[in-house]
Amino acid sequence: MTETEYDRMTAGKLYYSPDKDLVARRAATRKLVTAYNQTDDAAGQKALLDQLIDCPSHDAYIEPTIRVDYAKNIHIGKQFYANYDCIFLDVAPITIGDNVMFAPRVGVYTAGHPISYDVRERDLEYGHPITIGSHVWVGGDVTICPGVTIGSDVVIGAGSVVTHDIPDHVIAVGNPARVLRKIDDTTRATWAAEEAAYHRETGR
Question: Which of 23, 44, 77, 196 is the most buried (most CB within 10 A)?
């Protein structure tokens, strides 16, 4: 079979963005996104989200408004939540583990453009996949760049720009994002004590 521009795009190769099939796919996705962002019906919104993302557990929730390029190229585990105004440029696969939270205005950008302007101006583009592990909290206005892998049990501080891989069990902040400190047993003990105090004080 002949390799399509969509095949090239999702494989991380240079592809021609104005290709008619890609234009049609983006237009179809925009209709779904518009409907999702405008509906107040919970059941209808859930059905639309199932068309926009691949979430086998069907329990993801994304606050409107959202932006998605192609749909079904976003693979999400259990118990995903994203707050307002998140953007998923899914020209390459976006893979997210279980129990991940996004604060408002998180941008997950797999899309890239050639550094050489003469190639870039001929509408050739590329995408590199982004992978995020489980038990991750991504702060507000974080930008995640093409090709990045973020480990599990990670917190990304608000406003960070993630340009390179982040290991497991850390807090990372800044532009570019760098590891600030580890999340260790002391961290867990501190928060376990906070939770215990909550239960004592509220009786819950």
Answer: 77
